[in-house]
Amino acid sequence: MTRLAQLQTPALVLDRGVLATNLADMAEAVGRTGVHLRPHLKTAKSVDVARLAVAGQFGGIAVSTLAEAEHFAAAGFRDILYAVGIVPAKLDRVAALVRSGINLMVVTDDPDTASAIVARAGAVPRVLIELDCGEGRAGIAPDSDQLLAVASKLGAACAGVMTHSGHSYACADFAAMAALAEVERQAAVLAADRLRAIGTDVSVVSVGSTPTSRHAAHLEGVTETRPGVYMFQDLQQIQLAGLGIERIAVTVLAAVTGRRPADRAVLIDAGGIALSKDRSTATMPVDYRFGLMLDHLGQPRYGDAIVQRANQEHGLVSVPAHTPFEELTVGTLVRVATNHVCMTAAAYDRYHVVDGDDVVVATWPRVNGW
Question: For an engineered disulfide with 353, which of 117, 125, 275, 362 has Cβ 3.0 to 4.6 Å away?
């Protein structure tokens, strides 16, 4: 039996029970809308997590890299959406997946790329046209002429449309999230209707972010939603969802490496590389700087012990008064909840899985790279 104390730090810890709670919560929320839940694995990047996430669902997943697509395909996942704009240089890898029998969908918003995709005779993936529903990142406007131009290049390869409301992370309350979910839905449905009007067989209308998937009033005209970070939660997401620290499934195990009693501060061996320097809570009601230090069981024993500074390999944590600073001796194990778990997890190649205590019950590998 392995315990957390036997691990080298920093290490990535996943609480299986919390994960199960988060998965069930989203499955219930999406189930009320009557659409497919296509879990986005860009955060988890784990076959073990993916199998739990698709249990009771239709089995499709979304990924953010072709390395993920190849990894999950090798593990038996057959319905995969590569939800990042494809470039022609990657089409050989796409074609190999298609030839192996994978129902692979790719996305584009570019007419020339659409032409390159369909030129692959005998290994053409299904394609979704990416829409911009207001985030201002990727995609084209649902009412644009370019939508029809891309569709005409794709011909029968066009399977539908997809969009992502990443700007939902800036919503101030549940009402704003629900309103943005409706904007997202309307954008996707408008584009789908326009494509059907020119004879395109639209079978997929894909939307989704964690906030909009949870708070959409309805998803009429949509076929699927693609939340991802809901599986693990983080310090940003729990504030958006009105949840407690206990819903954060992934934390970083670290050790105290130095003490500054006069400042009620400690150093830990988890810095910018181990935690990431994402500052997504900077605009939230509580700014956790670079993370919140918990005890080795993931409990908030030290109050608002915030990682104030993150150097490459060092984190400087301020420890509030009336908390047990004296027990934070060099070598003491702690866990850190982070701002953006997607960024944090990317530094690790595995999860050390626990179930509410310090016993490591499994080790689940992750796939990294592109």
Answer: 362
The Cα 285–Cα 296 span in angstroms is 26
Using CA atoms, how far residue 290 sits from 256, 319, 343, in Å, is: 16, 14, 12
Buried b (16+ CB within 10 A) or exposed e, 360-370: beeebebbeee
- Tokens at 199, concatenated: 């004879």
> What is the rounded CA–CA span in Å between residue 204 and residue 222?
8
Burial 252-286 (b: 16+ CB within 10 A, else e): bbbbbbebeeeebbbbbbbbbebbbebebbeebee
What the chain holds in terms of domains, given with CATH numbers, is: 2-12+237-365 (2.40.37.20), 33-230 (3.20.20.10)
- Alpha carbon of residue 74 to chain centroid: 21
Where are the alpha helices (H) located in 198-313, listed in sequence order? 210-215, 235-241, 272-275
Closest CA to 43 of 24, 58, 64: 64
pLDDT of residue 72: 98
**Can you give the pLDDT at residue 111?**
96
Strand order in the sheet with 103-108: 36-37, 224-225, 204-207, 158-163, 126-131, 103-108, 79-85, 61-63
Pair 191, 129: CB distance under 8 Å: yes
**pLDDT tens digits, residue range 327-336?**
999 999 999 9
Size (the chain), residues: 370
pLDDT above 70 coverage of the chain, percent: 100
Cα–Cα distance between 23 and 99 in angstroms, integer?
32
Q: Can you give the pLDDT at residue 136?
A: 87
Q: How many CA atoms lie within 13 A of 20 on its CB side?
A: 7
Task: Using DSSP, state whether 357 is helix, strand or coil.
Answer: coil
Instruction: Give the ranges where 78-230 is alpha helix by DSSP (H).
Output: 91-99, 111-118, 145-154, 174-197, 210-215
Please state, in angstroms and rounded to a whole number, the distance separating the CA atoms of residues 321 and 363: 36
Residue with tokens 């408008």: 190
Range 20-49 average pLDDT? 97
Max CA distance (Å), the chain: 72
pTM beyond 0.90: the answer is yes
